[in-house]
């Protein structure tokens, strides 16, 4: 709100200056007389200045134009540059028209005290025009045209090459309500201190627009890519409010912006060629960039390729509201140009409130690549998008571009997505994400009854004949929670592609999203999903590599198909933990087969009240293959199942190999079928422990049951295990409180004696010998008869305990034996 008031105050002050500025065009006497020119038609002839070769120099003490006034520069037709300076130390207020009748001559207008453009300001020149608050204009390598110190000037025939600023705080340029344009193919340039555009339009058809803000001494060099400087030059503030910069035409020009703090509010930057010429570029370089409710876009409407769009920011880019950073190919008929590349470079990137970065094609042209390189964090929230699309529906529809993201951390929340979509014959674009640390996908945005939940996520989709793109993600940690998703979906004849996820430390898929609309509750699990919703081609494959994979609280990894084959699932993990209704599934609801699930674990797999399953409605069930060296534990309703609901398809096989322990506690392993044969179950383990309420089945309602092969040392010991006592035996309660020998100084003692004879072999199955001897306690002084002390002798040693009192060693009754459960063993 404070920013708004300051802009309002600035607008009022600027308007006051414009309205109350006298019309003044006064020569400063550098060449000839010190005279005021007569308006409102100011005739600025060549003889009023100084011509050096193809350069014409003018020097003014003041230069102001009111609305309706025209300043016309004239001279020989062979002039190439008309260069003017204002030396009086007061800003120039330009609310009239600057005109030139010199064919093809470029114009330079310098006033180091500042320049203000009003609502009636116009430009009518045949060449390029440059406005600057620089102190010096460099000419070639040796010449210069000075403004603050005119006497230091050295005029030459060389063309201008750079703007020199001597002040720590160069004066500003303000453009208020103006419509400024140059002729086709030429440049419109502004350089100075703070730059502010409000309710204005700048147009350079097939030309170039330069906006450069500088906040220190330094040089700005004229190049084909705008005004450039070295790293020692500090850049200033640039604000564009309710304005438009447009370089569109049959071909297209370029827009170059250089600033420290750059802000765009409700504004547009456009580069849109319509002919066969290549599009120009839009390039913004800044320390920080804030864009709200604005459009920055390059496109092509004809056979020429679209231009490149680059945002290069040292610190943070913040995009919010109805903001789009786009490149597109819009021609719907061949020949059609391809969309340009979008390049984003920053330390931090934030997209909120629906802001988007995208590239798309609407016809035969290809979509552009999006390349995002961010050093620290990329955070998308509030239904923000990074997307590539192919929206052409004709036979020659172009392919969507691809998305490449490189960062440390990527965060997607509140329905934000990174996505690729194709609607016709074009191929969907691929997504490649490389995060040095963490990718976090969290939550959702609520929708309507048709789409009640919009998950945060990374998604590729195909709605026509084109295939969906691939997803490849690499990070240290990947977190998907509260309804977030990574998915691939096809809704037509297109085929799903592979999802490959690699997390070098851990991967978590946890929780679900819940939304209540009109009294109905909708739920969506956090998941990695590949689905063929209605098409004839199979869903894509899911491949996951990580040392630790945790699925909990309804988290899922799933492939599915309505009519085609479901995709495969391959997991390469160290540890796999499934808990509380988590699932790894592959399902086919139609005539297609369920996909295979292959899990290779380096340590252990635990499935607690969760499932690993494949299911087919009519065709063959998918195989499940699990390889794990240490432990496979299914507990509390944990299941591994393959099933076929109907038809003659056989149940999928289940193969479990190499674990030291397989534990089933209230768990099931099933390979069932309906009309076909049941699947085969093969379990090979060192130890196989199954509770009495667990089961392993391979049934078929109409076909032949499958075979069950279990190879292990123990195959069912659930009925022979007992529960150990919950407390240790306290021997002290069995002894008298005091040994009588304490009164006479006698002490209790242990005696260890070697066992005579040869001990049994360690692998002898016979019972160990137990020797028992009785010794009389001659030292007892108790009036009661002394008792014998038992000495228990085991193989290898004899352990004897002697106590001088008359204590008696007894044993307590053992509790009744009960069945032990596997959870009490581990």
From TrEMBL:
InterPro entries linked: FhaB/CdiA-like_TPS, Pectin_lyas_fold, Pectin_lyase_fold/virulence
Filamentous haemagglutinin FhaB/tRNA nuclease CdiA-like TPS domain ranges (all copies): 33-140
One Pfam family per UniProt: TPS
Coiled coil: none
NCBIfam families listed in its UniProt record: adhes_NPXG
This protein's name: Filamentous haemagglutinin FhaB/tRNA nuclease CdiA-like TPS domain-containing protein
Species per Swiss-Prot/TrEMBL record: Thioploca ingrica
Lineage of the species this protein comes from: Bacteria, Pseudomonadati, Pseudomonadota, Gammaproteobacteria, Thiotrichales
